[in-house]
Specification:
heterodimer, A: 71% helix, B: alpha+beta, OB fold (Dihydrolipoamide Acetyltransferase, E2P), 5-stranded antiparallel β-sheet, 9 helices
């Protein structure tokens, strides 16, 4: 609106002084803000496009041209996905496997981190180096081994088979070890004098004292497990055992790909993670910084 | 100076030994922290382990607690050999310098932690925590977390955590050094009161000789891993066995000056002081050194007229510190700068020429090895 008003017009008005003060506003800051905003738009547009497409009937989706808003607003795609597919089951599967991965990884990593940080046992250094070394091997490089191992355990096509290889989480152990290292030894000694066992030390002193780290690691592990595609895709072929991420690939019918439906199920798949992120934003950022710090 | 000899010099000997260390040695790799040390602590006593940092006093306490392994020797508590017993089973409680209060627990949970890990019921935990809180006047703070408490209150919670276990022996590892000066004095009094009320055996590590002097009925002075002297506060102050103890106890510290011994008659030695005057200083029988170090406390030097015939030194006042109840003077003399403690209302000025009279009966002579002659 104001773009049509020339600078000369403005200068003639009483508000000119205000404009002058506005001009003194940090120009560099303005440029950076605009650039960031532009970046955000670039980033967010596909999301918007995906979301808006889910409300379009399929014929509108495949029509040439760009329509930023559906002509005929419809919930039919969601209806189809929710009613005609096994999305409920996939959600449950995702929830079970991600929940199990999170719980086991956190407890195991805390235990391992505690042992390596606090206990004195033979081969402690060896195990520590093993963990550090395993963290340098990219997990997808081991995927064939994982598959063979799981199939030999007869765990292919089971939820346990989906969970198994995801329990390798050296970064979590390393982070715990480092945080436990920094707990002053007085706490440990005071508890030892009070008669606490190592389990009590871990679960009543060390874990609660590092509660922030635990929640951060739990959230980031959960999101990672929820979003994981490659391994669950390989480990499961039965539709009943699929995670939501793998389930998306099953949403097609005899007529071929239905873009709006695929996007609808993708939106539903991403929803829990988006919610978790929104609720625990600060913790997630913290966790990412932590693992980035370790990785860097 | 041997550990055995020092133990024999113990002031209180009548009561039964409650904690006993027998020929204890602690080595960390090639470094020896404690060398062949023996010590007994009587039941109900308040024993202070005193020494400069690195003398091994904390190590000694931690060995009694079971937090450090004993390389050689034995530790007895209540006549039971606990050398290999884990800390929790030694019936001791320890108060740490950092307090080590669990930040995520309330005062109540902190105090009851030992009961909780032992599987006591919530009811018992609450009752005992309340009981202890009452003794320590912590009742209003039971549901607060350590972060919401002042330094003194945290200190009391730490003591409460020890108290709730009803231990045989209380171990304190420099518990007051994190407090400010005023609070330290206040907590010192409270600790003394607590000891009087409970009558429990307490072993207290400190590098602060005032704390040791005021609280303890027995002080163990440690120097580089060996016991320098054991005795009551006044025994250490008035009859130090060696130069180390003489120098460590007392504030401001003892003055030391080199002297030549001209004659000894078995009970006293005639010495020539720097500046030419002579003095008669008490020695033990058989002392036969030619030269020695004379030690005299600041309060045993008196400011007199420079022409006083009885003055041991003539000098000039360099610095005056008025403390109100006393005056500390730094006097330049032929023997170097001497510290003199005078009356609070002493009228003197820097640069003023003065004489110093020496209270010969209070002075001590130390031989080449540092042992008192």
């Amino acid at each position: 609106m104001t773009a049509s008003v020339s600078a000369a017009d403005l200068a003639a008005q009483p508000g000119a002084r205000r404009l002058a003060s506005l001009r003194r506003v940090d120009l560099a800051g303005l440029v950076v803000t605009l650039a960031t905003l532009l970046g955000a738009v670039f980033w967010a547009f596909p999301l918007y496009w995906g979301l808006v497409t889910t409300f379009k009937p399929e014929y509108e989706v495949v029509r040439p041209g760009i329509a930023l808003w559906p002509e005929h607003f419809t919930f039919a795609n969601y209806g189809h996905v929710l009613l005609e597919t096994k999305i409920g089951l996939w959600y449950v599967n995702s929830l079970i496997t991600s929940g199990a991965v999170t719980l086991i990884v956190v407890v195991m990593a805390a235990g391992a981190g505690y042992a390596i940080s606090q206990l004195d046992f033979p081969l402690r250094r060896f195990f520590w180096w093993m963990i550090l070394a395993s963290f340098m091997v990219p997990i997808p490089a081991l995927i064939v081994n994982h598959f063979i191992l799981m199939s030999q355990f007869r765990l292919i096509n089971t939820l346990a088979g989906v969970v198994g290889p995801q329990l390798i989480a050296p970064v979590t152990v390393i982070i715990y070890k480092q945080f436990f290292d920094s707990v002053p030894k007085d706490f440990r000694e005071a508890a030892v004098i009070d008669g606490a066992s190592d389990f009590q030390l871990l679960f009543r002193i060390y874990l609660p004292m590092n509660w922030g780290i635990t929640t951060a690691l739990a959230i980031i592990t959960f999101i990672g497990a929820w979003n994981l595609f490659l391994w669950p895709f390989l480990a499961v072929s039965s539709e009943d055992m699929m995670n939501i991420t793998v389930g998306i690939t099953q949403v097609h019918d005899a007529f071929g790909v239905q873009y709006a439906r695929d996007l609808a199920v993708a939106m539903l798949a991403a929803l829990p993670v988006a919610l978790v992120y929104l609720i625990f934003q600060r913790r997630v950022t913290q966790a990412i910084m932590l693992s980035a710090g370790i990785k860097g | 100076m041997s550990a055995e000899g020092a133990t024999n010099g113990s002031a209180a000997g009548a009561a039964a030994p409650h904690v006993e260390l027998r020929r204890v040695t602690k080595r960390y790799g090639a470094v020896t922290a404690i060398t062949d040390l023996s010590l007994t602590v009587e039941k109900g006593s308040f024993t202070a382990l005193l020494g400069p940092s690195g003398c091994g006093k904390s190590t000694l306490l931690r060995m009694i607690a079971g937090l450090e392994e004993i390389t050689a020797g034995q530790c007895f508590i209540d006549n039971i050999d606990v050398t290999g017993t884990p800390p929790a089973k030694r019936r001791i409680a320890m108060v740490f310098q950092s307090y080590a209060l669990y930040p995520h627990m309330t005062v109540r949970q902190n105090i009851a932690f030992s009961l909780s890990v032992a599987g006591q019921s919530k009811k018992v935990q609450n009752e005992r925590a309340l009981e202890v809180a009452r003794i320590l006047e912590l009742e209003p703070y039971l549901d607060r977390r350590p972060a919401e408490l002042s330094g003194g209150q945290r200190q009391r919670v730490a003591i409460g955590r020890a108290l709730v276990r009803k231990p045989e022996v209380f171990l304190f590892d420099e518990p007051l050094s994190n407090l400010d000066a005023k609070l330290r004095v206040q907590m010192r009094v409270e600790l003394a009161k607590l000891h009087a009320e409970l009558g429990a055996t307490m072993i207290y590590v400190t590098h602060d000789q005032t704390e040791a002097m005021t609280l303890a009925d027995k002080i163990v002075v440690l120097d580089r891993g060996v016991i320098s002297q054991v005795g009551s506060p006044l025994a250490l102050y008035n009859a130090p066995l060696n130069k180390f103890v003489a120098a460590f106890i007392g504030s401001p510290g003892m003055n030391f000056l080199g002297v030549d011994i001209t004659a000894t008659n078995g009970r006293t030695a005639s010495v020539i002081l720097p500046g030419g005057r002579t003095a008669q200083i008490g020695v033990s029988a058989g002392a036969s050194a030619r030269s020695a170090e004379l030690g005299v406390r600041p309060e045993h030097l008196t400011i007199v007229d420079p022409n006083d015939p009885q003055a041991a030194f003539a000098g000039k006042i360099a610095i005056i510190e008025h403390l109100g109840n006393s005056t500390i003077l730094y006097v330049d003399t032929p023997a170097g700068q001497l510290i003199v403690e005078g009356e609070g209302d002493l009228d003197a000025k820097p640069g003023q020429a003065v004489g110093l009279r020496l209270s010969e009966s209070h002075a001590r002579l130390f031989g080449e090895t540092g042992a008192t002659l």
